[in-house]
Amino acid sequence: MNTAPLQGIKVVDFTEVQSGPSCTQMLAWLGADVIKIERPGVGDATRKELQFAPDEPSYYFLQLNSDKKSLALDAKTPDGKEILTRLIKEADIFVENLHPGAMDKLGFSWEAVHALNPRCIYGTIKGFPVSSKYKNLKAYEPIAQVTAAAASTTGWYSDPDNMPTQSGAALGDSNTGMHLLIGLLAALCQREKTGEGTYVYQSMHNACLNLCRIKTRDQLTLDRIGYLTQFPQYPDGKFGDCVPRAGNIEGSGVLGWTYKCKPAGGLDSEIDGNNYVYVILQRGAKDFEAACKAMGFEDWLTNPDFNTADARDRHKDAVHQRIAAWTADKTKYEVTEILGAAGVPVGPVLSTKEMMTDESLYDGNTLVRINQGGDIGEFVTVGCPFTMSNYQPQYGPCPSLGGNTDEVLKSLGYTDDQIKTFAQNGTTASLAEPKK
Questions:
Q1: Torsions phi, psi of 69, nearest 5?
Q2: Across 116-125, 231-240, 246-255, which has the greatest mean pLDDT?
Q3: Residues 289, 275, 255, 251: is their CA dihedral positive or negative?
Q4: Left, alpha or beta for 92 (phi > 0: left; psi -120 to 50: alpha)?
Q5: Is 428 exposed, middle or buried (0-12, 13-18, 19+ CB in 10 A)?
């Protein structure tokens, strides 16, 4: 049995770049019929962003638009507006992520779409919540991170590298797409009860902030007692009014840190700088004893500077230095094997190359290979992050720009002559440049 959860759901995808397309691609992978609206002759901005070949769409585009249909459409022309109106009247979901006010100006605001099709769910992504004083700013990934306290709490805590740092993970982009996905799926469930679509507003700021929950926890604690025991600044450093940057701490009450290892050879090289392992010392006495025995640190079990969690918090530097000396003559894989066998939380720092060459991850969900055909051939992308016992996504290629235009227009009832006219008047194809 492989029944797609969203089979029969029609989606009009008026999004581009990453935050919106990451959401609508997941809708497509779950079985929805997703029609991506692209500007004639131009397409999604990522088609030509960071290209690996001048005549091919970039991996950026390919990794975000699998299994969609592409309709080349200029929604500013009278015919374009009529075509989009017909699409919306048949749609279950309409999604857009244009800058604030753009859809209103185009004539397809939530109110307009709801009037056209009361059952249609309207999903929108903007930079900030409507209550924010920054609501009219145009937002990118780093803007979401710096305004949601992610950057201020990420990075090193001492000079010369003490500066706000953004995460390598797309907290503002793909993360926002997944948050919107949750809202849209909830809206579909709600519609089963009410029969009416709703407006789902997701800001990049709030999606990023949702992943910074423990930093707001830390702020509450700091305001209450004036210090944070899990941070490397404790007990000798000074705490200011806000949650500081904390390097590589684990973030909760356990003592976690990143330790340098010797190069393992192969993909793990000195050049790439990923010869590290992450080790966590848990607070429980039995867990700590297991870690000490695995590393040969039995003397810590009777040393009052280390044999309790609170004592270890007060002597972090000494803990880090001794473990660092122990890992220095071992590879990250050896450390992982030794400590993992003892039940110690541990993991090697893996590079993108190491991860993407691990065949065990090509399990149909974690990483997937998609055959785009032509000169592109096969490419790798991140698959559906969860598994379902009775459904497995089938990952198909990305559409060419406007590759499904005729198909979509015919499904809406347009004749061949009308379709030809749309191409000639600039609605579905770029007008020829006037001769000089």
A1: -105, 140
A2: 116-125
A3: negative
A4: alpha
A5: buried
Answer yes or no: are the C-beta atoms of 390 and 3 closer than 8 Å. Answer: yes
Residue position matching structure tokens 């969860």: 386
Inter-CA distances, 278 with 250, 315, 360, Å: 9, 18, 21
Spatial distance between the Cα atoms of 8 and 13, rounded to a whole number of angstroms: 16
Query: Long-range pairs for 424-429 at CB < 8 Å and ≥24 separation?
Result: 425/77, 425/79, 426/40, 426/74, 426/77, 427/40, 427/73, 427/74, 427/77, 427/79, 427/80, 427/83, 428/40, 428/71, 428/72, 428/73, 428/74, 428/80, 428/402, 429/40, 429/41, 429/72, 429/402
CA distance 207 to 180: 9
Write b or e for each residue in 247-263: b if 16 or more Cβ atoms lie within 10 A of its Cβ, otherwise e. Answer: bebbeeebbbbbbebbe
Nearest to 90 by CA among 33, 144, 143: 33
CATH class of 255-344: alpha beta
What is the bridge-based pairing of β-strands 121-126 and 255-260? unpaired
Q: What is the CATH number of domain 10-210+357-424?
A: 3.40.50.10540
Place 261 in a pLDDT band, splitting at 50, 70 and 90: very high
Q: Name the phi and psi angles at 259, rounded to 5.
A: -120, 140
Distance CA 205, CA 149 (A): 10
The first and second tokens of residue 186, run together, are 């909830």
Distance CA 231, CA 212 (A): 16
Q: List the one residue out of 278, 296, 299 whose CA is nearest residue 344.
A: 278
Please tell me the number of Cα atoms within 13 Å of 38 on its side-chain side: 28
- Encoded tokens for 221: 């604690």
Please tell me the pTM assigned to this model.
Answer: 0.94
Residue type, 257: W
User: What percent helix, strand, coil does the chain show, rounded to 5?
Assistant: 35, 15, 50
Active-site residue among 173, 218, 268, 287?
A: 173
Any idea where the domains of the chain sit in the sequence?
A: 10-210+357-424, 255-344
Quote the mean pLDDT of the chain.
Answer: 95
Q: Is 173 assigned a catalytic role?
A: yes
Residue 386 has pLDDT above 70, yes or no: yes
